[in-house]
Amino acid sequence: MFVTNASRGLPRHRSRYPAERYTRWALRALTALLVLATLWLVVAFHLRGQWMFSLLFLVLGGSLAIVFGKRELMSHRYIFPALAGMGVFVIFPLVYTIGISFSNYSSSNLLSEERVRAQFLGQTYQAEGQAFDFQLVREGNRTRLYLEAKGAGDLEGARQLVSRPLAHAEAGQPLAVEPAQAAPSGEALGIREVIALRDALEALTLVTPDGTELKMSGLRSFAPMLPRFAENPDGSLTDRRDGGILTPDHEHGFFVTEDGERLTPGWPVAVGLDNYTSIFTDPDIRGPFLQIFVWTFVFAGLTVVFTLAVGFVLASLLQWEHLRGKALYRTLLILPYAVPAFISILIFKGMFNQNYGEINLILENLFGISPDWFTDPALARTMLLIVNTWLGYPYMLLLCMGLIQSIPRDLFEASAVDGGGPLTNVFRITLPLILKPLTPLLIAAFAFNFNNFVLIALLTEGSPDILGASTPAGTTDLLVSYTYRIAFQDAGQNFGLAAAIATLIFLLVVGLSALNLRLSKVKV
Fold first, then answer.
1. Which H or E run contains 86?
2. Are strands 175-179 and 206-207 parallel, antiparallel or unpaired?
3. Which pLDDT band, with edges at 50, 70 and 90, does 522 fall under?
4. Which CATH code of 3.30.70.380, 1.10.245.10, 2.40.430.10, 3.40.50.960 fits the domain covering 125-227?
5. DSSP character for 89?
6. CA dihedral 340, 343, 392, 363 (to 10 degrees)
7. 206 contacts 132 by C-beta, under 8 angstroms
8. Residue 400: exposure state from Cβ atoms within 10 A (0-12, 13-18, ≥19)
9. Residue 156 in this model has a pLDDT that exceeds 70
């Protein structure tokens, strides 16, 4: 006879096993902590004006609470971490990049409009005719500043001021000065001591009783620092030095002077398809972009062809029945695949050095030539293909070895009966049978080399440069390295244009992936 929890007078929801109950409580506590942590991130990003990140963590925290809070969604808890990771590290960066491509986001348009306005309003200037001569006066073990107004000028308030002891000055905090009838008694320090304390004096801010801030303006003077700009009701700024007006240009994201000059920094604004159209309409961008675009396809295509050719030939030789020491040869040929790529690339960079590299030393001794591998565009591209073939052939070798071994030996025996030789077997039997299963892998290798940033960054850095380009572009750049240089190496750091090119790269890679799935006959 079975005894249930109800017959024992226990609640139905209470488990007979305490470990399960404790595990359930721990899971709920962990879920609550994660939800609170995401809510804290939501508030933190919102206070910093990063509404996209705030929205991301709001969605993440809400979905976490829903999935782990409802028993009906228990089956979704196991896949939630994978979906959350894909959303945070794949989908969100993709959406964020596409969003940036429709803006003028750059090093000149980086801050929000509110922060740009605050930065202008925080600027100060030295008022003319209102300076104070100063002396450093030592009284025992204390040092004070004694200030006396220069000339009559238009200075208001006290004309003689004395500071509190400099030892009371705290880093980053202003030092108060008070009216004085005469200079304090003590030893006035000479110019040599003033120069020795110059750094400390330049970092010092003096505050008069009426709230005016004084900053060091010379080896013997302090001067009031006044706010340079005043904000007007219509949002414009007035320059108090010359009365000029700065008008906010919300179309381009800058404050503009009356002469039409744009002042930096600016703020990001939406520009629509301008970044995309400039890629194809601006001659200074279109020329280098199309050249790099074509070279990217040529580089990826030739790399696949060369690595496949070398790997297939070596795999065919390793299948030769009369070859001795196959295991040793197989190990030696696969060794480059075990060495990290960046180490091999740096070694090749030294070997191809134009002045003392081993390759040029050999060519010069044998043929009397010393190629300019890094300065000649054609030779630089040839060097890239050589190095990338070395790095990629072991992968093709492994694939071809496995596929060749899967071919039935009866086909080769039948070919021998018909009088077929090694070349006939290669072109009539081996290649046709391995190309079909290799096709999806070749497309994947093409997509990988299409974005082979590490090779370009470590070997040539995109050089030699394309002359006349308005953006940093090199003859050996791929689209991915070209995008990186626009975003992080160009003086203007045009993130919007780089994001537009990155979006185009994404669409191309998506197309290659779709083709790969189609050829692999994978149903999505």
1. helix 80-86
2. parallel
3. very low
4. 2.40.430.10
5. I
6. -160
7. no
8. buried
9. no
